[in-house]
Write a structure and sequence with these properties.
alpha/beta; six-stranded parallel β-sheet; 13% strand; elongated
């Protein structure tokens, strides 16, 4: 049996996804509305987290805890998970559900350590195949997401610029961003100016709109 935890904020869609996975057989499925902060509360941790990639933290926020780092986890299991590219020290794999034409969301999922990427417009069969493959330590990428990966690789902003933009998108003024990131106000303004130039925006608000449309923030 493969233990799966669904992470999806929308309750109705979360419940539907749980039922869909259970109908495939061989899966023990639970769910969470948000990413666990810190070690997973489940004992033992799931083999796979199936997550809405749009629920992943924005740059500047904590990296999602995709598995437990419980004392019972052996060193060999941790080494194996690392070799397979898993984001988690405890061996849980992250399978991200990716919306179409959102290269920034795809990039965010990759940065979070996802080893599986499934198109939200894909079939039930593809999702179940992906769960089994990432649970076995393999990688899985939907063919329809190939172009998205190329676009994600072309994202022009640095991590620091993304962090500044993400905070600005939440309404934080320059002074608050500077205090949060331990930067001077002038440095924050320089980062914003660089962001506006790189994305071809007219101003800060337009830069936020462009970044959100691509799923970068």
């Amino acid at each position: 049996m493969i233990r799966v935890t669904v992470v999806y904020e929308a309750q109705l869609l979360r419940a539907a996804l749980v039922e869909l996975l259970r109908s495939g057989g061989g899966l023990v499925v639970s769910s969470l509305p948000h990413w666990p902060q810190g070690p997973a509360h489940e004992t033992p941790p799931p083999d796979v987290y199936v997550a809405d990639a749009e629920c992943l933290p924005s740059p500047g926020e904590a990296t999602p805890a995709t598995a437990s780092t419980s004392a019972s986890t052996s060193a060999s299991a941790s080494a194996s998970a690392s070799a397979n590219g898993s984001a988690s020290a405890g061996g849980s794999a992250l399978l991200a559900l990716i919306p179409a034409q959102r290269p920034g969301v795809l990039r965010r999922a990759h940065a979070a350590g996802a080893t599986g990427f499934v198109d939200k417009n894909g079939s039930k069969g593809r999702l179940l195949e992906a769960v089994h493959r990432v649970a076995a330590g393999e990688r899985f990428i939907d063919d329809t997401l190939a172009v998205g990966f190329l676009q994600a690789a072309e994202m022009p902003l640095t991590r620091r610029e993304l962090t500044v933009l993400s905070l600005a998108a939440k309404g934080a003024p320059v002074a608050e961003i500077a205090a949060t990131l331990y930067l001077s106000r002038g440095t924050v303004r320089n980062y914003m100016a660089s962001v506006i130039r790189k994305v071809g925006a007219r101003n800060r608000v337009d830069a936020i709109r462009i970044a959100q449309g691509a799923g970068w923030t």
